[in-house]
């Protein structure tokens, strides 16, 4: 074997050893990531028995929803408050409703749709979730039948409806050929929702004052 063959053999051996080390390193990293992921899932889920717990909710003070999966040996759980649950659920419903009504669909429009749906959820679902909690009868009475009883229910119901109406009117300029920057999704729809929400707040405050005076006169 001459010098060139010996040099080539050394290069092949060193390359083979380097490849083996790289493979072993990748395998160790994969095992470590798998173990970390398994520990994280165990910490979040807390065990094999998944239960959906929900605490009793009052009108203004609500303990968090317990969405964790726990067993008798684990106390860790993933907890969401009624406000957070209402924010996420409202964002999902608003996003699906916007897509069903013709909002742009695509990866490039997804962040805008998410931002708009979170904004609409703040106007519609979050106040109701903070006050009403999980009382389906109250949700149905206020939003489906539009029959609020208390002043705070008027301040939830009216701005939520006016925000939706404002978003609906705000969507009208979008298909027009004015070629303005504010016609893009969801700029004009967001402005319409905000204007409608502000109008609803003013209207609900006025109605609350009128109801307060009526109750005061009835008491006299």
Could you please describe the fold and organization of this structure?
This protein is an all-alpha fold and 220 residues long. It contains six helices and two strands. Strands 1-2 form a two-stranded antiparallel ribbon. Helix 2 (82-100) crosses helix 3, helix 3 (110-132) runs antiparallel to helix 5 (151-170) and helix 5 packs antiparallel against helix 6 (187-219). The radius of gyration is 29 Å and the shape is elongated. The N and C termini lie far apart (117 Å).
Summarize the SSE layout with pairings.
Blueprint: H1 3-45, E1 65-66, E2 79-80, H2 82-100, H3 110-132, H4 136-144, H5 151-170, H6 187-219
Antiparallel strand pairs: 1-2
Helix pairs in contact: 2-3, 3-5, 3-6, 5-6
Pathway: Glycolipid biosynthesis; glycosylphosphatidylinositol-anchor biosynthesis
InterPro entries: GPI_biosynthesis_protein_Pig-F
Transmembrane segments: 88-107, 113-132, 152-171, 191-210
């Amino acid at each position: 074997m001459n010098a060139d063959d010996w040099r080539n053999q050394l290069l092949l051996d060193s390359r083979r050893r380097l490849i083996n080390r790289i493979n072993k390193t990748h395998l160790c990293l994969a095992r470590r990531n798998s173990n970390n992921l398994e520990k994280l899932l165990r910490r979040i889920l807390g065990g094999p028995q998944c239960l959906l717990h929900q605490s009793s909710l009052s009108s203004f003070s609500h303990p968090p929803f317990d969405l964790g999966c726990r067993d008798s040996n684990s106390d860790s759980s993933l907890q969401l408050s009624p406000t957070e649950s209402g924010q996420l659920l409202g964002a999902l419903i608003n996003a699906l409703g916007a897509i069903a009504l013709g909002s742009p669909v695509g990866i490039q429009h997804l962040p805008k749709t998410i931002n708009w749906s979170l904004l609409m959820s703040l106007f519609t679902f979050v106040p109701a979730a903070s006050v009403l909690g999980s009382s389906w009868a109250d949700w149905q009475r206020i939003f489906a039948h539009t029959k609020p009883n208390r002043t705070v229910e008027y301040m939830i119901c009216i701005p939520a409806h006016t925000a939706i109406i404002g978003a609906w009117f705000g969507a009208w300029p979008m298909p027009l050929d004015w070629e303005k920057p504010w016609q893009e999704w969801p700029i004009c729809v967001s402005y319409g929702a905000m204007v409608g929400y502000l109008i609803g707040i003013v209207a609900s405050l006025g109605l609350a004052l009128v109801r307060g005076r009526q109750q005061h006169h009835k008491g006299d």
